[in-house]
Amino acid sequence: MATSSEQKINFCEVCTKLLEESGHGVLPLTEIEAMKGKIASFEQSTTDYNTGTKLLIRRDLELSRANEKLQKLDETKSNFISIVAHQLRTPLSGVKWTLSMLLSGDMGPLNNDQKTFLMKSYESNARMITLVNDMLIADGIQSGKVHYGFKHIDIVDLMDNVLFEVSPQALKRHISINYKNKFKNLPQAYVDPETMRAVLQNLLENAIKYTIEGGKIEIDVKVENDQLLVSITDNGIGIPKDQVKEIFTKFFRARNAVKQETDGSGLGLYIAKTIVEKNGGKIWFDSVVGEGSTFYFTVPLQENH
Ligand code: ADP
């Protein structure tokens, strides 16, 4: 007859299996004790597993709540930025208007010193307007407030348009801007013209800003893998290798750029990247410090997003 502990073991599923494996109906006491130990540790593991699962569920819930809170905070921050930026825009435009009136001599003649100082104020004010606008655009594209109206357009026409606007900055610093080809029979791009204009403007302004006096900028557009590949090459200051990864991050400015050009928000490339991707393309660059940079981006020919 089996002992009580043997009976208990025979009822246990784990033990039954072990008994079958060992080929014995009844096990010696030492093995029964060993099995008891195994059962206890198995029971402990099950308890630990259950506790772990409960903890995970609780943690998951906490994370979801934290995420919701962060989303709400992000929304509040976004509203705050947009209110402040809008509020700033009005007085800044007022200052711009007053300064341009003074500069044009509407309030009486100015001597050269007065003109120089007023011109500096005018330029600083214009930079603040640009910064505020950049903040509004960055916030708009991040929070999904920007509307994209995709259609077929000639990207070189759009480039010509932007070039017309930025060429005074290039002329001032004797920087030449040329197209690499004549671009005959280029297919149309399928993009949102308004946001795409901002991308071209940012990239061209950067190429001008970060190129030394008398430098060269070359633009190329070609078809590659059923897309248009646009590139803008300059022979400017380049981007330090150890800062390459951060270039498209919001508010980031490389150390050589800060040294040479104190103005800049560090928002332009973040905006450009977000817009290019929303338009269904990709953006990247090659750069060598002291030699120059090429920024590339692709745009689709048809709807692909
Ligand atoms: P910003 O020009 O206002 O600083 P961006 O977001 O447009 O901001 O650019 C981020 C940084 O990337 C710049 O501060 C600069 O360090 C680097 N950068 C962008 N374009 C160029 C370029 N063509 N040549 C060298 N550095 C560049």
Question: Which features does this protein show?
Answer:
alpha+beta; 8 helices; 5-stranded mixed sheet; binds adenosine-5'-diphosphate; disordered N terminus; 305 residues; two-stranded antiparallel ribbon
Overview of the molecule:
Helix 4 runs parallel beside helix 8 (268-278) and helix 5 runs parallel beside helix 6. The model is unreliable at 1-10 (pLDDT under 50). 58% of the residues lie in helices and 14% in strands. The longest helix has 75 residues, at 29-103. It has helices at residues 4-11, 13-22, 29-103, 112-142, 155-172, 193-209, 255-260, 268-278; strands at residues 151-153, 176-179, 189-191, 216-224, 227-234, 283-288, 292-300. The chain is elongated, with a radius of gyration of 33 Å. The chain has 305 residues and is of the alpha+beta class. A hairpin with a 3-residue loop joins strand 6 (283-288) and strand 7 (292-300). The protein contains eight helices and seven strands. Adenosine-5'-diphosphate (ADP) is lined by residues 202, 206-207, 210, 234, 236-239, 247, 252-254, 257, 264-270, 293.
